[in-house]
Structure formats: structure tokens, C-alpha cells
Specification:
mainly alpha, about 75% helix
Length: about 260
């Protein structure tokens, strides 16, 4: 099964697949696929970047949603706790957050093991560390967007759900959540674009993303301007594709609205 999936992914690769851009236009150049150029390495970097962003998004959204709910809680301590959380991770630079997660988690886990009597060196996977760090930052910003969306929904919507005999969970899923998505979507779309760019930070901890792969190619080939310009083009292409995707989702979310 994995072999079939790998073959399909290779065939559909837009850069180094049979009809990929590098395969068709990069022959005989530094971006040729295979041993002749850096096409395969850069294509792998694009996959890592997209995979990291896509894997981070649902985690960050789920955390942001829970934080937005907690910010509306009757419990004052809970509201204070989420306020401290969002203030810290919105105030810290993303790179420092990544370092804290990447190195801090290793120290924490090793300390726990040492306390339990296990002398073992622990290394956190760079992909996992990047995903956790970016999800934490994304959740701190998305929670504010979702909280504003919650406040934009009239209280009467909740009362209407109660009048129809719906439980709190049903009211949230059937009445509030569809409106919440529609209201929050523009802000979340902007945060997705920021997340896509922030994936470049993971190159610092050794993950083979676009920036790291093009950086290695630039140093080895001495074609720094070309490869960094190529990295810019790749990020711009991903942003353009994201814009089209977000536009489609926004039209789908507003399909029930009455046009005036």
C-alpha cells in the first residue's frame, strides 16, 4: 500500500514528476531532477513545508477554539489563564517559541527520565517540535479571531436553540458553528498565510523545508541569488494557490446568504 502511495505521489509531483516543471524545463540546469541538479531536494522541501503547515492547522484551530470558549467562561481563573497564554505567545517571537519547544521539551523529558532513574539522551523530532511551536502561536492568534466571531453572534441565537429544544452541544454544532466559520474565515485565512510563511523558521532546527534546501543548494552551487529567488517564487505560488482555495471556501461558507 505504501509503495503504491509513494508511486502515485511521485507521478503527481508538480516539480519533479513526469510532467513536473523541473522535469520539463529544468533539464541541463541546476534545478534538474535526479543527480544532475537540485530539483529533487527542492521538491522535497516543498512537500515538507506544505505538510508541516497542513498538519499544524487543525491542531492550532482546535486549541484556538478551546481557548476562545475558555475566554468566555464564568470562571475568572480560567479567563485569566487563557489571557496569560495568549499574551505570552503573541508577544514572543516565533523563533524563540520554536527554540523553547525544541530545546525545552528535550530538557524536560530528560529531567523526568533522570528522576525516574533512566539515563537516556532524548532528542525531539524537528518536525514535531516545529508543529507544536507553530500550533501554539497559531492558537494564540486564532483564539482572538474566534472570540471576536463569537461576540458577533447575537445572544438570541443561543436562546432560539433552547426554544427549539436543542442541547448546548447541538446549538453549538447546528446554529453557532456555521455562523462562526463564516464570520471568522477572513481572519483565519490571513493567519493561514502567516503560518505558511512561518514554516521557514523550522529550517533553523534542521528540518529540510524550502528555505533549508534552497540554502544548501545556494552554498554548494554558489548560485545564491538564483536559489533564494526560487524560494521566493515557491512561497508566492503556495500563497496564490492558498488564496484561490480560501476564496472557494469563503464562497461555500456564504452559499446560504441572500444576495442583495
Amino acid at each position: 500500500m505504501s509503495g503504491w502511495f509513494s508511486a502515485l505521489a511521485t507521478a503527481l509531483d508538480p516539480l519533479c514528476g513526469p510532467v513536473g516543471i523541473f522535469s520539463l524545463l529544468g533539464q541541463g540546469t541546476v534545478v534538474a531532477c535526479g543527480d544532475a541538479g537540485w530539483g529533487d531536494e527542492i521538491a522535497f522541501g516543498v512537500k515538507v513545508t506544505v505538510t508541516l503547515a497542513v498538519a499544524t492547522l487543525p491542531i492550532g484551530l482546535a486549541l484556538g477554539f478551546l481557548i476562545a470558549l475558555a475566554a468566555q467562561s464564568q470562571d475568572r481563573l480560567l479567563r485569566v489563564a487563557v489571557g496569560i497564554y495568549t499574551t505570552i505567545f503573541r508577544g514572543l517571537p516565533e523563533l524563540l517559541t520554536l527554540f523553547i519547544v525544541y530545546y525545552g521539551l528535550q530538557i524536560l523529558i530528560q529531567s523526568v527520565f533522570a528522576w525516574a532513574g533512566f539515563e537516556q539522551r532524548v532528542e525531539i523530532n524537528a518536525f514535531v517540535a516545529g508543529m507544536i511551536a507553530l500550533a501554539v502561536v497559531f492558537s494564540s492568534y486564532s483564539s482572538e479571531v474566534l472570540l471576536s466571531a463569537f461576540r458577533a453572534i447575537p445572544k438570541g441565537q443561543y436562546e432560539a436553540g433552547d426554544a427549539l429544544g436543542l442541547g448546548r452541544g447541538q446549538t453549538m454544532m447546528l446554529v453557532v458553528l456555521p455562523q462562526l466559520i463564516r464570520i471568522a474565515l477572513p481572519g483565519l485565512g490571513n493567519l493561514w498565510m502567516i503560518l505558511l510563511k512561518d514554516t521557514a523558521y523550522v529550517s533553523i532546527v534542521g528540518l529540510s523545508d524550502i528555505v533549508r534546501q534552497t540554502g544548501i543548494a545556494a552554498r554548494v552551487s554558489k548560485e545564491a541569488f538564483f536559489f533564494y529567488f526560487l524560494a521566493c517564487l515557491l512561497y508566492l505560488v503556495l500563497a496564490i494557490i492558498s488564496s484561490f482555495g480560501l476564496g472557494f471556501i469563503e464562497r461555500w461558507a456564504r452559499r446560504g446568504e441572500v444576495r442583495r
